[in-house]
Amino acid sequence: MLKGRNLIDIKDVTKEELNEIFDLADKIISDPDKFSHICDGKILATLFYEPSTRTRLSFETAMLRLGGRVIGFSEPNSTSVSKGETIADTIRIISCYADVVAMRHPKEGAPKVASMYSKIPVINAGDGGHQHPTQTLADLLTIRSIKGSLSNLKIGCCGDLKFGRTVHSLIKAMSMYENNSFTLISPQELKVPDYIKREMGKNNIKYMETKKLEEVIGDLDILYMTRVQRERFFNEEEYIRLKDSYVLDKDKMENSGKNMIILHPLPRVNEIAYEVDDDPRACYFKQAKYGMYAREALIMKLLGMDK
Ligand code: CP
């Protein structure tokens, strides 16, 4: 039962609860009209302390499509945050106004702090370079819909695996399903953090690390590309040196399997050439749409409106 709970880390939900969210999302996809008044009278607050296109707007669209309403901000400087209000006080106030809140923050752990002071469910919509659990809902719903299963998959994660919160949450989630393995493709400076590798080791999850996308692309079921994130670097020169480490183009796609799918949480900068967009294996725009359905299902579950 997810009613009243927070989603801060993807491990806050079990595999069975994930599957229930995806089953509900599938029902919404099949018959969206049936759900168009399910959240009548309910309010979602979106508190975005960091820029976003997909996450904020898909959350807001999700609530509107369920018949609910939305309050919030996309620019904290227009709120009392600019006067020094703490997260604890802001969330206490929002708890008086809304029924569920989605929060994005540049600082790791900020949504967790909010959840400690909140009287309503808090959803982590991305915290710094840490976790992005609802992107993972979008990713897994996409994989399940296209591949038909979330098990027995060879998943390549490519790009900024150090600060890439979507990759951190994806690895945790896909590790819950049977016989998945990971190929971690990154420059030395942007490798997956040790704490995630230790967890994979403890759970006997198979993984390998490499710098060479070309050498492994032919062996993957899923290629999850990520952006090298300028906003996470302290040093601009280091960012410029690493930003084009990987560019997926038609030539590289020649060596990949015909059933491999390409995912990307977006936004992209240079890491996927536009010429790849027409390839039937490019699923990143579909993935963004699945994100809306996954968030509809999540909102319903947290509000207990799924019964
Ligand atoms: N995938 C994702 O988090 O995109 P936004 O930053 O646009 O929300």
Automatic annotation (TrEMBL):
L-aspartate binds at K83, R165, R227. Residues 5-144 form the Aspartate/ornithine carbamoyltransferase carbamoyl-P binding domain. Its EC number is 2.1.3.2. It is an enzyme of class 2 (transferase). Keywords: Pyrimidine biosynthesis, Transferase. It comes from the Bacteria. Residues 152-300 form the Aspartate/ornithine carbamoyltransferase Asp/Orn-binding domain. One of its GO terms (molecular function) is aspartate carbamoyltransferase activity. Transmembrane segments: none annotated. The keyword Nucleus does not apply. Pathway: Pyrimidine metabolism; UMP biosynthesis via de novo pathway; (S)-dihydroorotate from bicarbonate: step 2/3. Belongs to the aspartate/ornithine carbamoyltransferase superfamily. ATCase family. Catalyzes the condensation of carbamoyl phosphate and aspartate to form carbamoyl aspartate and inorganic phosphate, the committed step in the de novo pyrimidine nucleotide biosynthesis pathway. Heterododecamer (2C3:3R2) of six catalytic PyrB chains organized as two trimers (C3), and six regulatory PyrI chains organized as three dimers (R2). This is Aspartate carbamoyltransferase. The lineage of its organism: Bacteria, Bacillati, Bacillota, Clostridia, Eubacteriales.
